[in-house]
Every structure is written in structure tokens, then in C-alpha cells.
Amino acid sequence: MAKYFDVHPENPQARTITQVADSIRAGALVVYPTDSCFALGCQLGSRDGIDRIRSIRRLDDRHHFTLVCQNFAQLGQFVQVDNDVFRAIKASTPGSYTFILPATREVPRKLLHPKKKTVGVRIPDHVVAQALLAELGEPLLSSTLLLPDEEEPMTQGWEIKERLDHSVDAVIDSGDCGTEPTTVIDFSSGEAEIVRKGAGDVSRFE
């Protein structure tokens, strides 16, 4: 059964955040809130976590996983960013955007798009997600919690706990999340290509 953590949305309890981070380091797959909607997250190098996310969401090998980063310095360790792209991303973070970029060697091969060798990255504007990332000290390998055959993500932590009780190890609930996933911008060619219009304003990339 999944552990359920009720976390304050503005002042997340440090002991709880530490407990969740420790479980992620030990291989746990968790559900956590972001500034767009709930996400599935595990440690960067967790093969079991990747396989479980693929199973829950029924994803194929072309799916872009996302590295959810605490800040720009961390993001820069895992993707290649030239000056023009840097400025464009910097102006939009933290926020509800996912950027697809060429990956560095720091990214495990299993996470890369098989042909493009790219990966998604984002910096969330969410107090609880940021607290967890700060405690973890590395990105969270993540994917939007959108179940197969459903049009919108779930917004209630208790509902997620009931539905995924035997599929995940923990659910962090800090109140309702939105139903709109991130806006996805592909910068892998050097130019902005809008892959998905979501919670982030796309006008600056059009």
C-alpha cells in the first residue's frame, strides 16, 4: 500500500519532505504535486521506477521522460543549451513548461528518445515540488500522472491514493492540482517548436 503524506502547500513539513526524499533514494516511485498537475517521480537512475511509470501509463519507448530540476544550474548538467535557447528558457522558468533538448552524457541512455537522443527538462513553480527537489539534491525523473484512456489527470490526492495504492509507493498531497499538463517546447533543432499547448503561455514561442 502507498503511504499518504498530507503536506502544507506553503510551508511543507521538513520531516515529511526528508522522509519522501529518502524513500526516493531507496527506489520508491512517488506521486507529487507540480504547478501544472500531479506527476509520477522516481530517482534518475531507477530502472524499476522507469519500468513502473511505463506500465502505469502504458508508454512506448518514444515517450519523452522529463527531468524535473530545482534550478537552472542543475538543468544545465543534463541538457545542451546554446545562448539563444538559454535566454528563451530562462525567461520562462520556473513555470509550467517542459523543454525538449539534446541530452548530455549525464542522462542514462534508457531515458533518451531512441533516435533524437533528447530528453525533457523543466523547473516547476511549486513550493512542495521545490522543497522535495532541494532535499533530493538531483532531478526527479518524472511523467505527468495521466492514466491510459483518460482525458484529464486526476486532481485529488486521496483519489490517486485509492486508484494507485498498489502501483506507487507514496502520494504527496498538498491540495488540488490542475488538470492541464505543461506546455511542451522542442528546442532540439535550435528553433522553438510547440509540441503541446498546455498550462504555460505559448505566445512567447510563436
From TrEMBL:
GO molecular function: L-threonylcarbamoyladenylate synthase
Keyword set, alphabetical order: Nucleotidyltransferase, Transferase
Origin superkingdom: Bacteria
Keyword Transferase recorded: yes
All residue ranges annotated as the YrdC-like domain in the record: 14-200
EC number: 2.7.7.87
Xref: NCBIfam families: L-threonylcarbamoyladenylate synthase
Protein name in UniProt: L-threonylcarbamoyladenylate synthase
Source species of the chain: Streptomyces ortus
Lineage: Bacteria, Bacillati, Actinomycetota, Actinomycetes, Kitasatosporales
